[in-house]
Amino acid sequence: MTTVQISDLEAQLELIKQEAQATIAAATDLDQLEQLRVKYMGKKGPIPQVLGGMGKLDPADRPKIGARANEVKEAIQTDLDNRRTELQAAAIQARLEAETLDVTMPGTYRPQGRIHPLHGTIDTVLDIFVGMGYAVAEGPEMETDYYNFEALNFLPDHPARDMQDTLYLPDGNLLRTHTSTVQVRYMENNEPPVRIVVPGRVYRRDTVDATHSAVFHQVEILAVDEGLTFTDLKGTIKVFLQQLLGDDLEVRFRPSFFPFTEPSAEVDVKWKGRWLEILGCGMVDPNVLKAVGYDPEVYTGFAAGFGVERLAMVMHQIDDIRRLYNSDLRFLRQF
Ligand code: DAH
What we know:
This protein is of the alpha+beta class. It has helices spanning 6-26, 30-41, 46-51, 62-98, 117-131, 145-148, 181-189, 230-245, 286-291, 308-316, 329-332; strands at residues 135-136, 142-143, 174-175, 194-203, 215-225, 251-258, 261-271, 274-284, 300-307. The protein folds into two domains: 6-99, no CATH class; 117-332, Bira Bifunctional Protein, Domain 2 (BirA Bifunctional Protein, domain 2), CATH 3.30.930. It is 41% helix and 19% strand. Strands 1-4-5-9-8-7-6 form a seven-stranded mixed beta sheet, with helices on both faces. Strand 7 and strand 8 (274-284) form a beta hairpin. It is rod-shaped and about 125 Å long. The site of 3,4-dihydroxyphenylalanine (DAH) has 11 residues, from strand 8 and strand 9.
């Protein structure tokens, strides 16, 4: 029978160790390293194979070769652990370098935008009314005759209803001519007390010139409660205009007419020595309250509405409404 010399097995183990250490040292990533671990430390690896030849060894030598095999295994395991630590550190270092931010590099120049004077005016107005306890409400720009006219107490033959003044849609609906539509929509869905401020775009069949545009902006307010009077309306409007244009502002109420308010007034302010008409207002007509199911014997209200462009033109001394739409940066940069 052939016998195996212990020195043969020792030589095989030494070879396995050297080969394993060389390939572990050459592994370049953690996946490769894991494959090597499986290859050398697994149950079907080369070391158990060598130990399989122990049977042919002198029994006295068997414990020695077993001990030697364990030393080799431990040596390989140590190398695997060390290499893993190195590769992990290298991976972190590579990520750190890849994600380095060079704070000395020149930035990308982006011109700074700013609020458009129209929206700035709207924001200022909303802020003032929100400060007085009003909630911001909005409504659709495409409307029915009912919300734009009928529920607001316009007579069937009122001139505003004419094709000459209002932009009608092919289906018989229309582009709202004022934000007063939202008064009706809001009251239909909310019980009194009401205090709302309504910004929005409105449409008229106007030829564009220095003071007219087919599309412009309005802000509307509405307050409904028990016991509101014309005094409340006057006080509210006066406080609003003074906060907007200055404390020593002169304000004048002039009788006027709107279908949805009774009595109605227009408000002028003294601006650079001239009276300028700024807004329309009045006590909500009982017919409007009835249309939304409020009892006019219990509730009264006041409302007001004005054109934002006009106000912005007065505040900023803008000579032509078209400047607000042309997006000319030479103009807009002045705000
Ligand atoms: N809706 C009116 C217009 O477009 C403005 C207006 C006047 C609104 C009086 C009101 C109001 O709420 O009470 O000219």
